[in-house]
Amino acid sequence: MNHTELVERWDRQQAAYISHREGRFEAILDALELAVGTAFAVVDLACGPSSLGSRILSRFPDARVVALDYDPMLLALAREHLAAHGDRVMFVDADLCDPQWTARITDQLGYRPQAVVSTTALHWLAPSELVDVYGQVRSLLDPGGVLLNGDHFRFDERTRHVASWSTRHDSATQQRSFTEGADEWDAWWSLLAAHPHISRLQDERTRRFSGRDASPPTTVEFQLAALRQAGFTESGTVWQLFDDYVVYGVV
After folding, report:
1. Is residue 241 a contact partner of residue 20, using CB atoms and an 8 Å limit?
2. How many CA atoms lie within 13 A of 71 on its CB side?
3. Do you know which InterPro entries this protein is assigned to (predicted)?
4. Backbone torsions φ then ψ of 158, nearest 5 degrees
């Protein structure tokens, strides 16, 4: 299976877990254009196979993308997926828990980016790690720059009704998607592990993530408080569907 098929199946698999995923992408792209125009450099944090990065490059011909990830298998797939964009995209293999990751960005790019984005990724960070990363992003960005983070932010006991609606909505989306042939999470990873050029990275991936457990879910209120704590002058939400949000911070 080639990289195009793998990314297409990744997108279908992710859409099973993220209802109206394309709507979330559109919200991020629209906010990017309104915030920083159409010619900018943007860092895609924990980019995965770069579904968002490819959409940015396609919509904004004068944009440059720095695709950063610590997962060697996903980063290898992103390299293949975005190869046609040439020097408009750079790849950085870095761990967001290592505070030196921002230096890797500025060394390669040569200047401060105008934007940082992320989708369905930063929830893997522990809350304290997320606050640190938000602070590092704020220091990395050009003055007036923007951070846009799309992810699930869970409800708590104060919002039991909408939490129930959200759970039922997610379940219905997954059931429909899997019935229509979307891969489940583990099934997609089995496909990636069979890729002839990427399978050799599986042991390294296991080594890097050994002992790193999923972090507890956080609310959108926590996200906004973390952005304020990090020093963003303005923060809020630009998009929401049940527990799925796009939050922003402006330097």
Report:
1. yes
2. 19
3. Methyltransf_25 (IPR041698), SAM-dependent_MTases_sf (IPR029063)
4. -75, -20
